[in-house]
Amino acid sequence: MDKLLIRGGRPLNGEVLVSGAKNAALPELCAALLTAEPVTLLNVPQLQDVSTMLKLIRNMGVSAERSQDGTVRIDAGGLNTPEAPYELVKTMRASVLALGPLLARFGEATVSLPGGCAIGSRPVDQHIKGLAAMGAEIVVEHGYMIAKLPAGWTRLRGARITTDMVTVTGTENFLMAAALAEGETVLENAAQEPEISDLAEMLIAMGARIEGHGTSRIRIQGVDQLHGCTHRVVADRIEAGTFLCAVAATGGDVVLRHGRADHLDAVIEKLREAGATVQAVDGGIRVHSAGGATLKAQGFRTTEYPGFPTDMQAQFMALNCIAQGTATVTETIFENRFMHVNELVRLGARIQVDGKVAVIEGLASTSARLSGATVMATDLRASASLVIAGLVADGETVVDRIYHLDRGYDCMEAKLRGLGADIERMKA
Ligand SMILES: CC(=O)N[C@H]1[C@@H](OP(=O)(O)OP(=O)(O)OC[C@H]2O[C@@H](n3ccc(=O)[nH]c3=O)[C@H](O)[C@@H]2O)O[C@H](CO)[C@@H](O)[C@@H]1O
Ligand SMILES: C=C(OP(=O)(O)O)C(=O)O
């Protein structure tokens, strides 16, 4: 297993390019299954999850070519096996996104249950409930969701779907299914994340009729057929937010090219309150900071977009660890998303967890500092928080199990090195 070796203490300066968003690219690769015509996606990030998704759709009989420049050409004209087997699904929960498009285009789908993951149990009951409201008959047997249309039906039927909670991939599954359903679908309590809007824009470019994306009520008028399109994947706000926290913590001055400040309001507001300077600039975001010890720790609660993203909680916590004062962080989305805490504590952080709440005593108020050690990455964003902590810790930090990081960050260590960090990958 690859590891990262980081020698902490260097500021970050210069420019870095923000890649396309993992959480937009994955549903958009699935959206290409909705048509027999070729689809071209631009700005697709080089990530393990994207490789897994390509493997999954190729296994269905789809042709998918990926170029070095981030272009992926998908032709689902030959799709002959509407199935997502466990072997390909087990490492990536987003494979549940195949369910909606397969059912909508073929009237049947067999998709393995994705299972839990380190951050929580992550059930898919709402996906099943919503698609059932559109008429799908879904049984769960032997670890698979087996879905089909009722006898005599040729298409799903539009419905009003109100989920029990806001679900991002659930909303995406319903959007894709509804695009080809008969009649109108109304999604109440829909997720409003920028990746939902990006997917909706792609579907509209394919001929879908969608209104209200980006709000909590989305209306979709189903059409008979969708056609091919070319779509550029939106910039990754979580990758951008991770770099913002890294620069705020280490100190320095960095421009994030293609970063979308308008997708990061909640995080940027907290960074400003902490004392970093963050501005939207032409084509990106600029962050300037004197470093973590000059910053004030900030409390926050994770909530659905436009609130503070759960996918940024761990990275901001690393910054809080070295700031002044005490902050309370509440994780409301996933029940087990403090796995990074014990590892940060191994680096010298002072954090107490009680259920959903973590209280961080910033080290700048004390005489202590983070000190390098070997730590274990437990999930994607936990890995990123350990990298940030390693960048500011005294001495050497080794982050083990970075396959989690590779799932969702495109060349992270090369990008950080380009900004002046002392970081290298140790191959297994
Ligand atoms: C590929 C992708 O886009 N992943 C993102 C997506 O995950 P994902 O779409 O899986 O997360 P959801 O928005 O669905 O989850 C929100 C909450 O609802 C619960 N829930 C969800 C569906 C369901 O059927 N039943 C149920 O109980 C989940 O366990 C969780 O507690 O949104 C999360 C919340 O912003 C992010 O952390 C992930 O990075
Ligand atoms: C939890 C995440 O992703 P996934 O839903 O793919 O596990 C994430 O991107 O932080």
From TrEMBL:
Binding-site list for UDP-N-acetyl-alpha-D-glucosamine: R93, R122, P123, V124, D125, Q126, D311, I333
EC number: 2.5.1.7
EC main group: transferase
GO molecular function, one term: UDP-N-acetylglucosamine 1-carboxyvinyltransferase activity
Enolpyruvate transferase domain boundaries: 7-416
Similarity-based family: Belongs to the EPSP synthase family. MurA subfamily.
Name of protein: UDP-N-acetylglucosamine 1-carboxyvinyltransferase
Organism whose genome encodes this protein: Acidovorax soli
